[in-house]
Design goal:
single chain, about 750 residues, mainly alpha, Fumarate Reductase Cytochrome B subunit, 3 domains, 3 strands, elongated
Length: about 750
């Protein structure tokens, strides 16, 4: 009965085999472009499989009884449809499993296991390469693996499969480029990305791949729609070596040639670059320690870059991605440390750190692959090429524009003497102002706190009684315009000034990004200039009668003028004595010495910031009459003067006017224009005495402001100093972080 059943099974298996024979022939890849196995070979041999003739030999019928799912035996099953179309179908079962006919192995009778398949019997060259590779070299494997890595070494079937092996140019093959990531990923993780190589099959093309139309798949690959490079394209097929070994295709000495198989124009350009020539110098040797599997790119490294130094092969960010350009700047800085430091202090560097990729970065000026030393005639930033390079972004740049110094260092007195001798006095001014007013503010805060604790806070403003008119409407409008504009300038400029700090991106997100912040900064700058011109116009209107009447000089030297007088210096000394408890509180006139300092600080800051900002805004037009290095000078002056203004206004001016204990939370007089009569007598006794002497006390008095006016004053005032203090805190944090 068993013989009869076995005969039926053999007959059935034979029918299956004949049917699958036609199916296999029909499913073979077309002989068009790419049909040669070598087109996407996963090894370095010239071996090509013979043309398939059918699903196997007659002896296979015996095997299929158990392994095709036709018999009752509990044996591993083979998918006849897949196996029949595979590249090894012509070999038959015995071709790979000759142990079946070994009389000492009772495979059919006792289900005794057969010996493992020895692929080296046919693929000797591939086996030799594999045995010398990291996949078989015990020493290399141990160095490449971590202590807790318990992965086993791969066998042939780990990569190629068993009964489903197809030519490597067949989309059904595990070694076809569209499938290699998944196959290699079984051991190496889900590394589904490689720079610019589209390792994942787009959904719209998966059906094409599944139909195994090799010619169509290859056409899509040539068009860049599918995978252009697979794992084996870079790492090799069987002869995979760790990149620190000289024989590896990714060793620094070989990687440029490896990439050049596809990127020939880029590697030709790179071959003539300063980076490539550095590796050709006599005595040079690559210094890679065992286990260092990428080209070195450490800070201060003397190892020149190769392709994968800049193009991280497993990074999904491609050269067309903005993130690549931002990362590339940092990559250049790992070797060019000093140049990176000066670049980050330039406008280009700060804008790049802030996320603006429209400005010039390293490769925009020096080139990408064809970087040359500045002394080389071929350098993009040397000689006559410099202006041409500048004009890639600044199309209308005149000849003098080229004297701009992109890596200027104002602390280098030998290399940049003009910048140095501007930097030193400006830095000295900043230090002097902050030291003097820092001490002044600290002592005043302590003294004012003591007075409040002893005597209580002064009576609330406008609690009762008349008021004194202190500021006219023109003064208040100009101040409000300047206040809003200055807050806007600080909020949009400080993030760029401290672009390397962590809070910069969050600040730019609030304003719509660095480009939008830049335009807002210019708009606020125009507002300041307009406010300044308006203030000059108001002064001229008020001073004109005195000028015509010959009283101008007398007024300017009098007590109602903002021009400093000898009495102001006496008040400074007297006030410090008062702070220290060594004397009485001095009596002040219409303007105190700190108010005069604040006024003149703003007065001369506006034209300085305005002119330097104009140079930075329209450098092409300005360098028609000015040398290019004035752009460097403008950035230095603009940056340091703005830092001084932010610190002085948001710390000292805010304290003097509103944040000291006796005034907190606001001195509303600059918004309402009035001061309570009693408060004015207390704070400006000398002017009140003069008014009494002149009989003007009734003339200067007015009605208190309305509730609506006071509400507006508090709303704008408190919001203003809150924003200012936030910008000041961020600026201080940025300043400390960049020291």
């Amino acid at each position: 009965m068993r013989f009869s059943m076995r005969s039926v099974s053999v007959f059935s298996a034979s029918l299956w085999a004949v049917a699958l024979s036609a199916s296999a022939l029909a499913q073979q890849p077309s002989s068009g472009a790419g049909a040669e196995t070598g087109a996407y070979a996963d090894d370095d041999t010239d071996e090509k499989p013979a043309y398939r003739r059918g699903p196997g030999t007659a002896r296979d019928d015996e095997c299929l009884i158990c392994h095709a799912g036709l018999g009752d035996e509990d044996a591993p099953k083979v998918n006849l449809r897949v196996y029949g179309a595979s590249i090894h179908a012509e070999e038959g079962c015995i071709g790979c499993h000759p142990g079946v006919e070994d009389p000492d192995i009772e495979h059919e009778e006792e289900d005794e296991d057969l010996p493992l398949v020895d692929c080296a019997e046919c693929h000797e060259h591939a086996d030799d390469e594999l045995m010398a590779s990291i996949h078989r070299d015990d020493d290399a494997l141990e160095e490449a693996q971590s202590d807790d890595d318990d992965r086993e070494q791969p066998a042939c079937k780990s990569c190629h499969g068993m009964h489903d092996i197809f030519p490597s140019n067949d989309p059904r093959s595990r070694m076809h480029p569209v499938n290699q990531t998944e196959a290699c990923g079984d051991c190496h993780g889900d590394a589904t990305h490689a720079t610019g190589h589209r390792l994942e099959v787009p959904p719209e093309y998966r059906e094409v791949v599944e139909r195994a139309n090799a010619a169509t798949v290859e056409r899509l690959m040539s068009q860049g729609e599918l995978v252009a490079a697979a794992c084996s394209s870079c790492h090799g097929g069987h002869a995979v070596q760790p990149s620190w070994k000289p024989e590896s295709s990714l060793h620094p000495s070989n990687v440029n040639a490896t990439c050049g198989r596809c990127h020939s124009s880029a590697t030709r350009a790179f071959a003539n670059s300063a980076h490539a020539k550095a590796a050709e110098e006599e005595g040079f040797a690559w210094d890679l320690a065992p286990g260092e599997d990428i080209a070195p790119a450490t800070v201060g490294s003397d190892q020149p870059p190769v392709c994968i130094t800049c193009h991280d092969t497993h990074n999904p960010v491609t050269p067309s991605d903005d993130r690549f350009h931002r990362n590339l700047v940092q990559e250049c800085g790992t070797c060019h440390v000093e140049l990176m430091a000066t670049y980050q202090k330039s406008y280009h560097g700060k804008a790049t750190l802030a996320g603006d990729v429209s400005v010039a970065q390293c490769s925009d000026c020096h080139g990408y692959h064809d970087v040359h030393a500045i002394t080389d005639e071929a350098s993009a930033v040397g000689g006559d090429n410099r202006l041409k390079t500048c004009r890639k972004c600044h199309a209308e740049a005149p000849a003098m524009f080229a004297s701009y110094m992109p890596h200027a260092d104002p602390t280098d007195h030998e290399g940049y003497p003009i910048l140095f001798w501007v930097f030193v006095p400006m830095t000295g001014l900043v230090v002097a102002v902050f030291l003097f007013f820092g001490l002044h503010t600290l002592l005043w805060a302590l003294r004012d706190t003591i007075d409040v604790l002893r005597n209580g806070r002064p009576r609330p403003m406008f609690s009762r009684g008349p008021a004194v008119r202190r500021f006219r409407w023109g003064d208040r409008v100009v101040h409000l315009c300047m206040m809003v504009a200055f807050l806007g300038l600080a909020a949009t400029g400080a993030p760029l000034r401290f672009a390397e700090t962590s809070w910069t991106q969050a600040a730019f997100d609030l304003t719509g990004g660095p480009e939008v912040a830049g335009w807002l900064h210019r708009i606020f700058g125009i507002m300041v200039v307009v406010g300044f011109i308006g203030h000059l116009a108001v002064i001229l209107v008020r001073m004109w009668p005195r000028i015509v009447g010959g009283r101008f000089l007398k007024f300017m030297m009098g007590p109602e003028s903002l021009v400093p007088r000898p009495a102001d210096f006496i008040d400074v000394f007297a006030n410090f004595r008062y702070f220290l408890g060594l004397g009485p509180k001095p009596l002040f006139d219409r303007w105190t010495y700190w108010e005069k300092f604040t006024y003149w600080a703003v007065f001369w800051t506006v034209p300085i910031l305005g002119f330097s900002g104009l140079i930075l805004w329209i450098p092409e037009e300005m360098t028609n009459v000015l040398p290019g290095w004035t752009i460097n000078l403008a950035l230095l002056v603009h940056s340091d003067q703005a830092l001084l203004a932010i610190g002085f206004v948001f710390l000292f001016h805010f304290f003097n006017s509103s944040l000291r204990p006796s005034k907190f939370p606001l001195d509303e007089s600059i918004f309402t224009g009035t001061v309570p009569l009693e408060a004015y007598k207390r704070e400006r006794p000398l002017e009140w005495a003069r008014w009494q002497q002149d009989g003007r006390t009734e003339q200067v008095q007015t009605e208190p402001p309305s509730r609506g006016s006071r509400f507006f004053a508090y709303l704008i005032g408190i919001l203003g100093w809150a924003v200012g203090l936030a910008v000041l805190a961020a600026s201080v944090a940025g300043f400390l972080a960049t020291r």
